[in-house]
Design goal:
Helices cover 81% and strands 0% of the residues. The protein is mostly helical and 467 residues long. The protein folds into two domains: 227 residues, no CATH class; 223 residues, no CATH class. α2 packs parallel to α6, α2 packs parallel to α11 and α15 runs antiparallel to α16. The N terminus and C terminus are likely disordered.
Amino acid sequence: MATAEQNVDFTTGNLFRHVSVMSLTSSIGLMAIFAVDLIDILFISMLGRDELAAAAGYASAIMFFASAINIGLSIAAGALVARALGRNDTVDAREFATSSAAFAIVVGLVIPVLALPKIEFVLGLTGAQGAVADMAARYLWIILPSTFLSGLSMVAVAVLRAYGDARRAMYPALLGAAVNAVFDPILIFGFGLDLDGAAMATVLARVATAALAMMFAISRYQAFVRPRPGCVARDFRETAEIALPAMLATVATPVGTAIVTREMAKYGSDAVAGLAVINRLIPVVFSVVLALSGAIGPIFGQNFGAGRMDRVEQTFYDGLKFLALYVVVVTSLLFMFRGPLADLFQASGIMRSLLYLYLGPLALASFFNGAIFVSNASFVNLGHPEYSTGVNWARHTLGTWPFAIAFGAVWGAHGVLIGQAVGGAIFAAVAIWLSLRVMAAPCRDPLKLYYTCPNQRMQVVMNRVYR
């Protein structure tokens, strides 16, 4: 039987290779998640009823907040397990993984209990009304009870990444996408369940994803142990210190998107349509950039847990190098094929000019978003997750609204995109500067000795309540 010692040791070997392998494999899993959403919308739109697609959109807005909680818990699980593995403490690694999974299950069960009785009111806050609101509510009554499965799978995948198993961390998302793709047409068209069928297919996909992720984590690494109340209670504070800031940081992204969309709306529906196409292209062509934070986190965590600050800093620099190389290559390809891509979306007028602006020089600005993701990974794994929250919210508010307004006043709709990119560059510089300061003085905060002072690690470990 496999043991935890078979995990990939990020404290040795070529760091650039570790960063590349983790990022590329993580991006495949991330693309599968986006594919699930795309498959749902595709089949729902084939029904020819706009109100069904609208209902799915409103429901997705509610589901996002449940996903943000699960993402926060998975980030905490990955960081805590990676640090423990870095200091060769497999007992702590298993305990943290188990506690995180227990939190994900409890939270995933509480969310529908609290939300579903008031779901009509909650949907009303998003603007859903009448028959569309009723369809969205029915959709959520099917999906929300499976929130705990989504959380459990995210935690298990994060644990697999902490062990350095990039390949097995990728497979659960691929399986989920495949299950969704198979059952969507069967349930939607074969059984005539329409939107309800799409919801059921998503639940089946979550079951498959969680089952495979847990199977890999348990059979390969014995990554989980039987949960004990004392152990879970002890780990609550350490998990919450990472999970809560990560949740808040995740919520900042749609706020920034909403601000840009509002400013773009001033220049007409064609401008908004151009922005919508760009927003759908980004997760596909720059999935590697979006995956960077979760992919590079275990490398930071293991080396930090081992007290290898030289490798922590080199991981940061190699992450930026890999990011720059990827963005330049993808931007070059986008520029070469910008004509066919614009034709694919039947873009003309201002919509086409916006696409041409993005599918060329402006796509290079994805480097700055990626630099923030790399910095966020360093903050979370070096014991300062609150910096991630601050940087994300600053970037999507102060780094978005004033710049979109100012540049938009000069160059119209094109200026909104340019302003968003300029703001991102400024706050990427802030994030990099702050990350370098954290890496230079990791023991600055005396309240975080356990995380930030490896030479005092044994004294703190001895004070842990449960053994």
